[in-house]
Each structure stands twice: as structure tokens, then as C-alpha cells.
Amino acid sequence: MKKLLIGLVLIIALGAGALFSGLANPLVEMQVKSALVESGIGEKNAQCMAERMVDRLSIGQLWKLRQGMAAQDGEPEEGYGLGELVKRLNRVGDGEAVAVLSTSAGLCAIGLG
Q1: Residue 12: how many CB atoms within 10 A of its CB?
Q2: Strands, E, within the chain: which ranges?
Q3: What is the largest CA-CA distance in the chain?
Q4: CB atoms within 10 A of CB 32
Q5: What is the domain partition of the chain in residue ranges?
Q6: How far apart are CA 40 and CA 5, in angstroms?
Q7: C-alpha dihedral (98, 89, 19, 15), degrees to nearest 10
Q8: CA gap 99, 102 in Å, rounded
Q9: What is the C-alpha separation between 10 and 66, in angstroms, rounded?
Q10: Burial, 65: exposed, middle or buried (Cβ in 10 Å; 0-12, 13-18, 19+)?
Q11: Once rounded to an integer, what is the mean pLDDT over residues 5-24?
């Protein structure tokens, strides 16, 4: 819990500083892309998805996605199936964020993102 609070404070501080310096989108986009690559999405698709997601979602929504999709106790870190994916998407609790993630994944996968 303490690590989560420290992480949240750091992200908010970085985000606030970046907003005032004009670097918000590139910094956030880089973090989103990194999280997508870590979750197993290829570099090219992750870049495409990150661009779309940062343009369409707030920092809070992006944070909810990251937290909701993260493996919890007893859940596999990677290599999970559709059932596990659906469970994690439901855990996010933000329909708009899930819709943007889903459409971004689909459009980027077929080259229309």
C-alpha cells in the first residue's frame, strides 16, 4: 500500500510538472507504450495504441487501466487467455477506458490506428 501511494504521488507530480512544461503527452505516451510492451504487445502496436489512448483518455483513466489490468495474487503475469482478459477488463470499472483500449488494440492490429 505504501509503494502504491508513493507511486501515485510520483505520477501525479510528474504529470503536473509535465503539463506545465508542455511535455505531458510525450511523457505519458512513453509510459503507456512501455506498460503495453511489458504486457506482451509488440512495439509497433504498442506505439500506435499509446498514441490513441493518450489522446482519448485522462491520466486517471489510464491509471485505472494499468491498475485493473495488473495481475493480482494468484493470477498469471502473462500468457493468459480470453477469460482472464475479460475478468481484468471488468475489474477496471470504466467503460470508456475499456472501449478505447479495445478499439485501439483492434484498429492498430489491422493497421488502421
Answers
A1: 13
A2: none
A3: 42
A4: 22
A5: 26-109
A6: 26
A7: 180
A8: 5
A9: 15
A10: buried
A11: 56
Joined grid coordinates for residue 95: 467503460
d(CA 28, CA 107): 21
End-to-end alpha carbon distance in the chain: 36
Contact 70, 6 (CB under 8 A): no
pLDDT tens for 77-113 read 877 777 888 888 888 899 999 899 899 999 999 988 7
- Cβ-based neighbour number of residue 28 at 10 Å: 21
Specify the length of the chain in residues.
113
Phi (first) and psi of residue 112, to 5 degrees: -105, 0
Whole-angstrom distance, CA of residue 77 vs CA of residue 95 = 23
Burial of 14 (0-12, 13-18, 19+ CB in 10 A): middle
Q: Which amino acid is at 64?
A: K
Q: Residue 45 CB: number of other CB atoms within 10 A? A: 19
Grid cell locating 100? 478505447
Q: What is the pTM of this model?
A: 0.72
